[in-house]
Specification:
Layout lengths: L7 E4 L3 H11 L8 E4 L7 H5 L3 E3 L2 H7 L2 E4 L6 H8 L9 E4 L6 H5 L8 E5 L9 E8 L3 H12 L2 E5 L5 H28 L4 H22 L3 H8 L5 H11 L2 H15 L4
Parallel strand pairs: 1-2, 1-4, 2-3, 4-5, 5-6, 7-8
Antiparallel strand pairs: 6-7
Length: 267
């Protein structure tokens, strides 16, 4: 597989697949080197207008491409693997799964022996090049690892982890987007109650969340050290934090993370 001429197919282009497609053409792949498939292609019209090949022929996509990204629902993975397996060539193809809870060993059981297989868990921030993607692999060599890393790094930050942590990575990185969005929503609602219109409250909260994350990224510190800088004796910040904790803010978040993790049924 030549790194400079490979084509990529996204099989099952739902919300995550769409985010990946947009992130790729804005970063590592030209639109005419990307194919996406979905049963209802009408909902992907906007991708087609950007030069991406959009169709419903999974087998054709595999024939045309060297990189095959599986972005289907977990309950569809076996039927999709059965469908495309005859067209997979272990010496030509690299298979990347972004399907929650499906191991590389399970995927390998459908494909020719020695097929390079990756699991990647990005999030929907890929389409704004701010995804955090956790990756693991099986039967992959340096070239394949470099290609997959370059694709996901072009959409944000990519890190390689042990496969046994992939379900935890799904909760922290992919589900985590929803957790943060819910926090932002609640903070905006609080801002409205104390006097701001929704648009202004949203702007304040969004930039505050972005700034808080950047402080940790840039300084490499601990959240508590940054909290200490804005909490003064008898001040309004500590009063608000303590009230949140009295109502179980931290424990509710931790319990939610654990509940999401326990919901995943790996195969």
């Amino acid at each position: 597989m030549n790194k400079d001429v490979y084509r990529t197919a996204i099989i099952g282009c739902g919300n995550l697949g769409r985010a990946l497609a947009i992130g790729m053409i804005d970063g590592s792949i030209k639109p005419d080197r990307l194919e996406v498939t979905r049963r209802n292609t009408a909902v992907l019209h906007d991708l087609a207008t950007r030069g991406i090949s959009v169709h419903s022929d999974n087998k054709g996509a595999v024939d045309n491409c060297e990189m095959v990204i599986l972005a289907v629902k977990p309950y569809n993975i076996d039927s999709i693997l059965t469908e495309i397996a005859p067209g997979i060539d272990a010496s030509r193809h690299v298979v990347v799964s972004v399907v929650t809870g499906v191991s590389t060993a399970h995927i390998a059981s459908f494909l020719p022996k020695g097929t390079p297989i990756f699991r990647a868990m990005p999030n929907t921030a890929a389409d704004v090049k701010e995804s955090l993607t956790c990756i693991c692999h099986s039967h992959a060599g340096p070239m394949e690892i470099d290609i997959v890393n370059s694709i996901f790094s072009s959409m944000g930050t990519a890190i390689f982890i042990n496969e046994e942590l992939m379900e935890a990575a799904t909760v922290m990185g992919a589900c985590g987007i929803a957790y943060v969005m819910r926090f932002i929503r609640a903070m905006v609602q609080g801002g409205i109650e104390i006097g701001f219109d929704a648009k202004t409250a949203g702007l304040i909260v969004q930039q505050t969340v972005k700034g808080a994350a950047q402080l940790l990224i840039s300084r490499g510190g601990h959240p508590e050290s940054e909290i200490d800088k804005v909490t003064t004796p008898k001040g309004c910040t500590i009063a608000g934090l303590n009230q949140m904790e009295h109502h179980g803010f931290s424990s509710a978040l931790i319990r939610g993370i654990i509940a999401s993790y326990q919901k995943i049924e790996p195969v």
